[in-house]
Amino acid sequence: MIKKYLFTFFLVAVISSSLQGSQITNDLFLQNIQNRDSQTLDGLWSIIIDPLENGYYNHRYQPKEDGYFIDRQMKHPSDLIEYNFDSDYQIMVPGDWNTQMEKLYYYEGTIWYKRNFNHHLVNGENTYLYFGAVNYHSIVYLNGEKIGEHIGGYTPFYFDVTGKLKEKDNLIVVKVDNKRLREAVPTVNTDWWNYGGITRSVSIINVPKTHIYDYKIQLDNNDLQKITGWIKLKNSNLKDEVSIKIPELNIDETYQADHRGIVEFEIKANPEYWSTKNPKLYDVILSSNNNPINDQIGFRTIETKGAKILLNGEEIFLKGISIHEESPFKTGRVTSKEEAQILLQWALDLGSNFVRLAHYPHNEYMVREAEKMGLLVWSEIPVYWTVLFENADTYINAERQLNEMIARDKNRAAVVLWSIANETPEGEARLNFLKKLASKAREMDNTRLITAALDTQTRREGVNHIEDPFGEFVDVIGINSYCGWYGGTPTSCSKIKWESEYNKPVIMSEFGAGALQGNHGNDIDRWTEEYQDAVYINNIEMLKNIEFLAGTSPWILMDFRSPRRHLRKIQADFNRKGLISEQGVRKKAFFTLMEYYKTIEN
Ligand code: GCU
Questions:
Q1: Model pTM?
Q2: Ligand 1 centre and the CA of 131: distance in Å?
Q3: For the residues 314-332, what does the mean pLDDT come to?
Q4: Domain boundaries 2-28+217-303, CATH class
Q5: Which residue, by CA, sits nearest to atom 7 of ligand 1?
Q6: Ligand 1 centroid, distance to 286 Cα (angstroms)
Q7: Which of 321, 302, 333 has its CA nearest to residue 475?
Q8: Is the C or the N end of the chain the one with fewer CB within 10 Å?
Q9: SS3 560
């Protein structure tokens, strides 16, 4: 195993050393699903609710050979079969199960999903079975055979199923278990609903045997008139050629793949930069053996200079808002482009140029639509609060989710910040865990900024000091601070001063207060819109006095479901810090933040 690892390491070392500025990621990833030839498996799936995992273990707690994954059919009226998908419940894929069936509202455990499908077999094609995300632990069976499993509730994964599909009546069964685990990422305590299930789309991806598998294309960090990157072919043969066309830039280049099936390129070009004011995307057509794959790519640079963030070399203040992937109106997980567009349009209505997609990688619609709408993106893995920093498997899990997040969105110009943690308590194990994760993030992608949201600032003589040792290892420091809600009165906030140990940009990544939309009173009455508004008014005054502040993403755009929020008549399982109710009604503070953002030029 070590030998294999060393070889892999050597191979990657050789590749990455020769690809400065556009490293090849350690783990290659099937790129750009949205624009590939695919067969959707979305729709109604049959389910079996199995809290004791009876479909997986026998009564001696041993894995069964004939578990529910074989979908055994009765052959004789005397057969004893104690399950039947086809006469059981059905729910929609994609979608969480909690909001689809009343009896599953609080359910945490195993649910078996099953569907049958036909597939048009094409001679010589390769096929992948692709999941946008499944929360949390999934085991996937195809035609009765286990083809793999995945841990992590918010990132895509897939399996090569070439040669495993039939023309008629394929059977796919997925065991999904959303039980929270102490050693998991996130761990057992979070402030969001543990929506379980196949929460994002499932599809069969059809590609020719030799196909463009992964690629990274972007503006060179060090030369703004150069587009650079790499393309990786799978099952390539010597002499395979790859072409890159960007018609609007009169680019039409052809390269020969090397023995690794990789093409590295640098192309002189003078593109219009992607920016929040001009979210310019170029049609890019990659092709190999006359099999084109299209993508829409923006070219921009992002960097820091002292306490400033520079987009395309110009200082920008990130006028943001935090967003959970909670669907407006219907609630539950976002499952469509339209829901994503609603949330992002609300952010634009606020006057935002930036969204913090908390606390886990959102579905690809959110990222691609943000890119089209000119919204910069902070994308985050759920290393949240008190994950088990001492546990090696927890680190491996976090790193894999980091890799999957970066691999999927590495070509998205809007994504400028990779966040690797939220509100983790200081300590040696945590510092080592996060340092390793931060350097891994840079190794995977040294073209974006690394950040984390910290709530470890210390208060001395009326001044808040940013001195968390982890601040040394990020490019941008996120600060979560709830003056006027978890401490102090709303009016006490405007006078608070901040100091930072680090000459780095700081984003006030969370501040806010709860209010039940439509509940009115005085600005000292908790849960009224007036109280929430007073918190915003005074925190905004505080922000104006932080000279190293490069942006903010107040908590939060829309009320979201959380199992920690029990005040029945006010919260009713919702965290009420939204500026908009889950029914889309804006609260007073929405307009206060909007007015503040109007005063900021860029
Ligand atoms: C924390 C945390 C959020 C949480 C918020 C709150 O800062 O990062 O996930 O929802 O506070 O208490 O509302």
A1: 0.95
A2: 29
A3: 98
A4: mainly beta
A5: 480
A6: 42
A7: 302
A8: N
A9: strand
